From TrEMBL:
UniProt GO MF annotations: proline-tRNA ligase activity
Location of the Aminoacyl-transfer RNA synthetases class-II family profile domain: 38-465
Designated gene of the protein: proS
Signal peptide interval: none
Pfam family, one: HGTP_anticodon
Source organism (scientific name): Planococcus chinensis
Protein name: Proline--tRNA ligase
Domain notes: Consists of three domains: the N-terminal catalytic domain, the editing domain and the C-terminal anticodon-binding domain.
Amino acid sequence: MKQTATFIPTLRETPADADVKSHQLLLRGGFIRQNTSGIYSFLPLGKRVLQKVETIIREEMEAAGSVEVFLPALQQAELWQETGRWYSYGDELMRLTDRNDRAFALGATHEEVITSLLRDEIKSYKKLPLNLFQIQSKFRDEKRPRFGLLRGREFLMKDAYSFHATPESLDETYNVMMQAYTNIFTRLGLNFRAVIADSGAIGGKDNHEFMVLSEIGEDTIAYSDSSGYAANIEMAAVNVDYPKSDEAPKEMEKVATPDQKTIADVAAFLNTTPEKCIKTLVFKTDDDLVVVLARGDHDINDVKVKHATGAKIVELAAPEEVQELLNCEIGSLGPIGLPPAVRVYADNAVKAIVNGVVGANENGQHLANVTPGKDFSVDTYADLRFIQEGDPSPDGEGRIQFAKGIEVGHIFKLGTTYSVPMKATFLNDQGRAMPYIMGCYGIGVSRVMAAVAEQFQDDAGFTWPDVIAPYEIHIVPVNMKDEPQRELGEDLYKLLKSYRYEVLLDDRAERAGVKFADADLIGMPVRITVGKKASEGILEVKYRRTGETFEWKREELLDHLQQFFKK
């Protein structure tokens, strides 16, 4: 492609509203442009990168036995109502109505649509298992779109769905898909980990996220320093033995704690430690209010609260709800004197506290010398806190460390989460109607592009991996008005294209400094500069990632390029 014939609007200045380097460079390099918040146009270079990511995904999905389909983005509300997600998915689901006031959603995900399709078409176990995938746009009304392509309201996604007659069949496909995802992200050159994760609004049980390690990642990965264990911090189990203090329980007493709102404030005011304090929070679980307790130096994990309570939606209760329930402000909450109907859940560490401190459910008052079991009861003890750095690894090997990650893929064992409410059944080998057992497997294609852009860059611009660079070779004649340079540049362009290299020829009438800056910015693996030695047939070749430069004669070029690209 000649640069004058394509559309690469590079920018010299960094856009003020781009917070992370990948977003900045994608804008500056002319790969994308923002249409509105969280919605982007992909320009020619960006589209080429996307297509190459898609190609790798398609190759590995097909190798894993998955077959491509294309499902509608406009989904009727009735399907979502069958599973209850029309009401529970939340504000991220973009809802609309047609001219006849019939309700629809723009596809945030496709579990309902694919389940509806299969229940109408597959009636026998003999046609199972079946694994289908698609690549198409998804729509989610993100509250805070940010970081460019990493969190948008319209994005490109690969989602696959498998249907099975037995759990063993699902397990087998799950493992195959785990390997397919590993192959995809390895081929892309990404530094990633597969981590244990929460299923969120998708549902199901066993699942893994694929995380690209990055300091700008929104997720925290808890990993062992001595084994392969890794989990999203939301799902990392805490396996800690909490020895109970041998001190004798004392009589509970009320103490004034004026203007002491936080655990740290209260502990300092009472000359104790956060470990001796009990943190009390009120959560709204579906339509109920529950009290959750944790040690003062621990943070309550709402995902674990959701699992412990069996609720679909868990969120902190609003201050007015707490005021109505306990008649006090949040800074003075405690587990003593609660209304009888309120269930109390406590993290396992709370059970070991003797003579601790809790809120008195009176503003500016706390209770000292409080011991669980003596002064208040707990309905359920469970692992409810976030794991901390230095805690024992859940697999018993080593200690936990933290890293930041960008989620680029997620695989789920859905089981019968969708097939049961949607009455999607098949006849098993005994002629009995059974619900499909399902798996779900997603990759954020446009997010993968951003993750690669985040990992493959330097101060001058992108250093794209060969496999997804927009073009493999960038030919840069320094001066297009110089006849030897122009002729050699165009000769190389035709020659390399005939050998099936992907070539971009900078035939613009620009200054050499502009051309070189743009070449470094958009980051093709190889740059061939045609300069003053063009009349001698001598070229300067630069490898973008390493910065190495060479002078080669025209007749040497093909051999060197074949070695570089392993063609």
